[in-house]
User: What shape does this take?
Amino acid sequence: MDVLVLAGDRGRDDPLVQGTGAIGKALVPVAGVPMLTRVLSAVAAWGGTGRLVVVAPDAPAYRAAAAAALQARGMEAIWVAPAASLVESVEQGLASLDSELRVLLTADHALLRPVWLDTLLAAASQRPASVSVGLADWQLVMQRFPGSRRTRYRFRDCSVCGTNLFVLGNDPGVGRILQTWREVESERKKPWRIVSLLGWSNLGRYLTGRLTLEDAFGALSARVDAVVRAIPMSDPLTAVDVDSLADLCLVEEVICAEERASC
Assistant: This one.
Protein backbone atom coordinates (compact mmCIF):
# COMPACT_ATOMS: atom_id res chain seq x y z
CA MET A 1 0.00 0.00 0.00
CA ASP A 2 0.97 3.59 -0.45
CA VAL A 3 1.37 5.38 2.87
CA LEU A 4 0.17 8.88 3.72
CA VAL A 5 1.68 10.45 6.87
CA LEU A 6 0.17 13.65 8.26
CA ALA A 7 2.72 15.86 9.99
CA GLY A 8 1.19 19.31 9.88
CA ASP A 9 2.16 22.05 12.32
CA ARG A 10 -0.47 23.18 14.83
CA GLY A 11 1.46 26.34 15.63
CA ARG A 12 3.29 27.70 18.65
CA ASP A 13 0.19 27.47 20.87
CA ASP A 14 0.34 23.67 20.91
CA PRO A 15 1.08 22.59 24.52
CA LEU A 16 3.56 19.99 23.29
CA VAL A 17 5.48 22.59 21.33
CA GLN A 18 5.47 24.99 24.25
CA GLY A 19 6.45 22.31 26.75
CA THR A 20 9.34 20.89 24.72
CA GLY A 21 10.57 23.86 22.72
CA ALA A 22 10.25 21.95 19.45
CA ILE A 23 9.69 23.81 16.18
CA GLY A 24 6.47 21.88 15.52
CA LYS A 25 4.48 19.01 17.00
CA ALA A 26 5.81 16.39 14.58
CA LEU A 27 9.34 17.34 15.61
CA VAL A 28 8.78 16.90 19.36
CA PRO A 29 11.56 14.57 20.58
CA VAL A 30 10.38 11.24 21.99
CA ALA A 31 13.21 9.62 23.95
CA GLY A 32 15.56 11.83 21.94
CA VAL A 33 14.13 11.09 18.48
CA PRO A 34 11.64 13.36 16.64
CA MET A 35 8.16 11.84 16.35
CA LEU A 36 8.23 12.18 12.57
CA THR A 37 11.50 10.22 12.41
CA ARG A 38 10.06 7.44 14.58
CA VAL A 39 6.93 7.10 12.44
CA LEU A 40 8.80 7.12 9.15
CA SER A 41 11.36 4.62 10.49
CA ALA A 42 8.53 2.16 11.14
CA VAL A 43 7.07 2.82 7.68
CA ALA A 44 10.49 2.35 6.06
CA ALA A 45 10.99 -0.93 7.94
CA TRP A 46 7.64 -2.27 6.74
CA GLY A 47 7.90 -4.43 3.65
CA GLY A 48 4.55 -3.37 2.22
CA THR A 49 5.23 0.30 1.57
CA GLY A 50 4.69 1.48 -1.98
CA ARG A 51 4.90 5.23 -2.41
CA LEU A 52 5.20 7.45 0.66
CA VAL A 53 3.53 10.83 0.96
CA VAL A 54 4.47 13.15 3.82
CA VAL A 55 2.16 16.09 4.45
CA ALA A 56 4.37 18.52 6.36
CA PRO A 57 5.84 22.03 6.17
CA ASP A 58 8.58 22.28 3.57
CA ALA A 59 11.19 23.34 6.10
CA PRO A 60 14.75 22.06 6.68
CA ALA A 61 13.99 20.62 10.14
CA TYR A 62 11.11 18.52 8.78
CA ARG A 63 13.14 17.38 5.79
CA ALA A 64 16.02 16.39 8.07
CA ALA A 65 13.72 14.41 10.38
CA ALA A 66 12.38 12.50 7.36
CA ALA A 67 15.82 11.91 5.88
CA ALA A 68 17.06 10.43 9.16
CA ALA A 69 14.49 7.67 8.75
CA LEU A 70 14.44 7.15 4.99
CA GLN A 71 17.91 7.66 3.51
CA ALA A 72 19.46 4.52 5.03
CA ARG A 73 16.79 2.42 3.28
CA GLY A 74 16.99 4.30 0.00
CA MET A 75 13.41 5.60 0.29
CA GLU A 76 12.11 8.94 -0.86
CA ALA A 77 8.93 10.76 0.03
CA ILE A 78 6.48 12.80 -2.01
CA TRP A 79 6.33 16.06 -0.05
CA VAL A 80 2.98 17.86 0.18
CA ALA A 81 2.34 21.13 2.00
CA PRO A 82 -0.33 20.93 4.73
CA ALA A 83 -3.63 22.71 4.23
CA ALA A 84 -5.67 24.76 6.68
CA SER A 85 -7.56 21.74 8.02
CA LEU A 86 -7.01 18.02 8.56
CA VAL A 87 -9.51 17.00 5.88
CA GLU A 88 -8.00 19.37 3.33
CA SER A 89 -4.53 18.03 4.12
CA VAL A 90 -5.75 14.48 3.52
CA GLU A 91 -7.36 15.53 0.25
CA GLN A 92 -4.14 17.19 -0.95
CA GLY A 93 -2.12 14.13 0.01
CA LEU A 94 -4.50 11.82 -1.83
CA ALA A 95 -4.38 14.05 -4.91
CA SER A 96 -0.72 13.07 -5.31
CA LEU A 97 -1.63 9.35 -5.51
CA ASP A 98 -3.75 7.18 -7.78
CA SER A 99 -3.38 3.73 -6.21
CA GLU A 100 -6.19 1.41 -5.14
CA LEU A 101 -5.21 1.07 -1.46
CA ARG A 102 -3.66 3.68 0.78
CA VAL A 103 -2.95 3.61 4.47
CA LEU A 104 -3.31 6.88 6.36
CA LEU A 105 -1.67 7.61 9.70
CA THR A 106 -0.45 10.54 11.74
CA ALA A 107 3.04 11.60 12.73
CA ASP A 108 2.19 11.61 16.45
CA HIS A 109 2.00 7.79 16.51
CA ALA A 110 5.52 7.44 17.91
CA LEU A 111 5.02 3.77 18.88
CA LEU A 112 4.07 2.69 15.35
CA ARG A 113 4.92 -0.96 14.58
CA PRO A 114 5.23 -2.50 11.10
CA VAL A 115 3.05 -5.40 12.30
CA TRP A 116 0.16 -2.98 12.73
CA LEU A 117 0.45 -2.11 9.06
CA ASP A 118 0.38 -5.85 8.26
CA THR A 119 -2.92 -6.07 10.15
CA LEU A 120 -4.37 -3.14 8.22
CA LEU A 121 -3.30 -4.50 4.85
CA ALA A 122 -4.63 -8.00 5.58
CA ALA A 123 -8.00 -6.72 6.77
CA ALA A 124 -8.41 -4.28 3.90
CA SER A 125 -7.46 -6.96 1.37
CA GLN A 126 -9.89 -9.54 2.77
CA ARG A 127 -12.83 -7.14 3.18
CA PRO A 128 -12.40 -4.12 0.89
CA ALA A 129 -14.07 -0.88 1.91
CA SER A 130 -14.01 2.79 1.02
CA VAL A 131 -12.56 3.42 4.47
CA SER A 132 -11.40 0.94 7.11
CA VAL A 133 -10.90 2.26 10.63
CA GLY A 134 -8.48 0.74 13.13
CA LEU A 135 -9.99 0.47 16.62
CA ALA A 136 -8.52 -0.76 19.90
CA ASP A 137 -10.39 -2.42 22.78
CA TRP A 138 -10.74 0.23 25.51
CA GLN A 139 -10.59 -2.32 28.34
CA LEU A 140 -7.31 -3.75 27.05
CA VAL A 141 -5.90 -0.24 26.81
CA MET A 142 -6.90 0.51 30.40
CA GLN A 143 -5.43 -2.78 31.61
CA ARG A 144 -2.14 -1.89 29.95
CA PHE A 145 -2.20 1.78 30.98
CA PRO A 146 -4.38 2.29 34.10
CA GLY A 147 -5.43 5.90 34.46
CA SER A 148 -4.45 6.85 30.92
CA ARG A 149 -6.85 9.31 29.28
CA ARG A 150 -8.09 8.02 25.93
CA THR A 151 -11.24 9.00 24.07
CA ARG A 152 -13.75 6.20 24.66
CA TYR A 153 -16.63 5.15 22.42
CA ARG A 154 -19.12 3.09 24.45
CA PHE A 155 -21.25 0.67 22.44
CA ARG A 156 -23.64 -1.99 23.68
CA ASP A 157 -21.26 -4.82 22.88
CA CYS A 158 -17.87 -3.14 23.45
CA SER A 159 -15.95 0.04 24.19
CA VAL A 160 -13.27 1.13 21.74
CA CYS A 161 -10.59 3.78 21.22
CA GLY A 162 -9.39 5.29 17.99
CA THR A 163 -5.91 4.49 16.72
CA ASN A 164 -5.20 7.08 14.00
CA LEU A 165 -4.85 4.14 11.60
CA PHE A 166 -7.04 4.08 8.49
CA VAL A 167 -7.05 2.41 5.10
CA LEU A 168 -8.58 4.45 2.29
CA GLY A 169 -9.75 2.94 -0.96
CA ASN A 170 -9.72 4.67 -4.32
CA ASP A 171 -13.40 5.28 -5.01
CA PRO A 172 -15.92 8.15 -4.79
CA GLY A 173 -17.01 6.96 -1.35
CA VAL A 174 -13.78 8.28 0.17
CA GLY A 175 -14.66 11.83 -0.86
CA ARG A 176 -18.14 11.53 0.64
CA ILE A 177 -16.70 10.24 3.92
CA LEU A 178 -14.19 13.09 4.09
CA GLN A 179 -16.97 15.59 3.44
CA THR A 180 -18.98 14.08 6.31
CA TRP A 181 -15.93 14.13 8.60
CA ARG A 182 -15.54 17.83 7.83
CA GLU A 183 -18.77 18.43 9.78
CA VAL A 184 -17.26 17.30 13.10
CA GLU A 185 -13.52 17.70 12.52
CA SER A 186 -13.07 20.36 15.20
CA GLU A 187 -14.91 18.24 17.80
CA ARG A 188 -13.47 14.82 17.03
CA LYS A 189 -12.56 14.23 20.70
CA LYS A 190 -16.27 14.19 21.64
CA PRO A 191 -17.72 10.69 21.01
CA TRP A 192 -21.36 11.82 21.10
CA ARG A 193 -20.63 14.47 18.47
CA ILE A 194 -19.11 11.87 16.14
CA VAL A 195 -22.05 9.51 16.64
CA SER A 196 -24.45 12.38 15.88
CA LEU A 197 -23.39 11.95 12.25
CA LEU A 198 -25.56 8.83 12.25
CA GLY A 199 -28.76 10.76 12.99
CA TRP A 200 -30.70 11.58 16.15
CA SER A 201 -32.22 8.12 16.47
CA ASN A 202 -28.84 6.39 16.51
CA LEU A 203 -27.40 9.08 18.79
CA GLY A 204 -30.21 8.33 21.23
CA ARG A 205 -29.43 4.62 21.05
CA TYR A 206 -25.75 5.38 21.66
CA LEU A 207 -26.41 7.61 24.66
CA THR A 208 -28.68 4.96 26.21
CA GLY A 209 -26.22 2.12 25.58
CA ARG A 210 -28.29 0.36 22.90
CA LEU A 211 -26.16 0.94 19.78
CA THR A 212 -23.74 -1.82 18.77
CA LEU A 213 -20.48 -1.17 16.97
CA GLU A 214 -21.71 -3.05 13.89
CA ASP A 215 -24.93 -1.03 13.83
CA ALA A 216 -22.94 2.20 14.06
CA PHE A 217 -20.73 1.35 11.10
CA GLY A 218 -23.73 0.12 9.15
CA ALA A 219 -25.54 3.41 9.75
CA LEU A 220 -22.47 5.42 8.77
CA SER A 221 -22.08 3.39 5.58
CA ALA A 222 -25.71 4.03 4.71
CA ARG A 223 -25.41 7.75 5.33
CA VAL A 224 -22.38 8.28 3.10
CA ASP A 225 -23.36 5.62 0.54
CA ALA A 226 -20.00 3.89 0.95
CA VAL A 227 -18.66 0.91 2.86
CA VAL A 228 -16.97 1.82 6.15
CA ARG A 229 -15.54 -1.02 8.24
CA ALA A 230 -13.92 -1.40 11.65
CA ILE A 231 -10.55 -3.15 11.89
CA PRO A 232 -9.86 -4.56 15.39
CA MET A 233 -6.30 -3.87 16.52
CA SER A 234 -5.23 -6.33 19.23
CA ASP A 235 -2.24 -4.34 20.52
CA PRO A 236 -3.34 -1.71 23.09
CA LEU A 237 -0.36 0.42 22.07
CA THR A 238 -2.21 1.27 18.86
CA ALA A 239 -4.45 3.60 20.89
CA VAL A 240 -1.54 5.57 22.37
CA ASP A 241 -0.47 8.58 20.34
CA VAL A 242 1.34 11.68 21.57
CA ASP A 243 -1.25 14.41 21.89
CA SER A 244 -0.22 15.91 25.25
CA LEU A 245 2.71 16.14 27.63
CA ALA A 246 1.19 13.30 29.66
CA ASP A 247 1.07 11.16 26.50
CA LEU A 248 4.71 12.02 25.82
CA CYS A 249 5.77 10.77 29.26
CA LEU A 250 3.72 7.59 28.81
CA VAL A 251 5.21 6.80 25.40
CA GLU A 252 8.76 7.49 26.60
CA GLU A 253 8.21 5.07 29.50
CA VAL A 254 7.13 2.38 27.02
CA ILE A 255 10.15 2.99 24.78
CA CYS A 256 12.60 2.99 27.70
CA ALA A 257 11.10 -0.24 29.08
CA GLU A 258 11.44 -1.90 25.68
CA GLU A 259 15.03 -0.73 25.35
CA ARG A 260 15.90 -2.13 28.80
CA ALA A 261 14.23 -5.43 27.95
CA SER A 262 16.26 -5.76 24.73
CA CYS A 263 19.61 -5.29 26.50
Notes: The domain at 1-111 is CATH 3.90.550.10 (Spore Coat Polysaccharide Biosynthesis Protein SpsA; Chain A). Strands lie at 2-6, 29-30, 33-34, 52-55, 78-80, 102-106, 131-137, 153-154, 159-168, 228-233. The chain has two domains: 1-111, 113-163+171-239. The mean pLDDT is 90.
